[in-house]
Design a protein that fits this description.
By secondary structure, the chain is mainly alpha-helical. Among the domains are: 94-127 and 131-160, no CATH class; 184-287, no CATH class. The chain has 12 helices and 2 strands. The protein has helices at residues 21-30, 32-41, 47-53, 57-67, 75-87, 111-127, 144-160, 184-199, 205-212, 216-224, 233-257, 277-287, and strands spanning 5-7, 95-97. Helix 1 (21-30) crosses helix 5. It is elongated, with a radius of gyration of 26 Å.
Length: 308
Amino acid sequence: MGIDNINLTSVRERRPDDRRYDLWSEFLRLSPSYNLANRVVQGLGTKAEFFDQVADAEVVWETRRNFGDVWSQSPASWREKNTMRLFGQSLSDLKLKVLHVMQSGEYAHKQDMTHALDTYFSRTRPEMGNPLSVVISIPLDADRAVLLQTFSEMITYYKARREDSNEAPAEEPLYSLSGVKARYAVMEQALKVAKARAYAPKVPLWEIGMNANVNETYASEMRTKTFRKKEAVIPKNVLAATTGRFLRQAVCLAENAARGKFPCYDQNSMYPKSLDYRELKELFEKYGYTQEFSGEEDQRSPFDINVV
């Protein structure tokens, strides 16, 4: 064993992990404003039309520029490539990392360090924000005073010649959560319901709610079909009302996400009143759909709607 990690500083504020960041790009997919900007970038519309039709057009355009095309890759792939750049999440304290120790007289093999190097470059260094670093081999049998003097000169030399990359995340994140008290599970459900509605726009709301399990009690009752048709009125009304509420939440979350505010339920008369389900269905079918929620496992897609 030995000392593998030595924390050098705690100056950077480490923001707690928050799964709600994972939903930001997912709600962007639903946003009519964002999708119009995306079409313009793809050459399927004009910028003049976009600025004429969209409220806060400059802000939405900036969001599209920063987030890129959230449709062209899976949500997981998008997060892997963009989370650090946009949100600056999980920046750990700067630390000195020992990758491998070679004993005196030992013949070292390249493969001995492969895993350690892969971990360092793919996880450890990105988690620190890709700081200016030097990967070196230190002969510990050398004189201690000489080593310390060499380290001092090395630090001065490389700091004076630093050439920072534009790919490194800014000290302050480009985007942060709004601070609104919005539960991940509730937003996740709104997202699931909106996707199901997009794929089956003519199916009654109560049935979408039943399949999405928006009210566990009534959804279970409707699936068992153990009561008479007249008794189904209340469950259907409750499921339909709850589903409608989730759809209204989804459009608010989507449109505010396109304007750099997430999570946010603010309503504005200039924003679309509902999602463009026809367009969303086309996009889901074009790019494919994979359920990636981290909640309770459910093998059924939210698009598995039983049409009566």
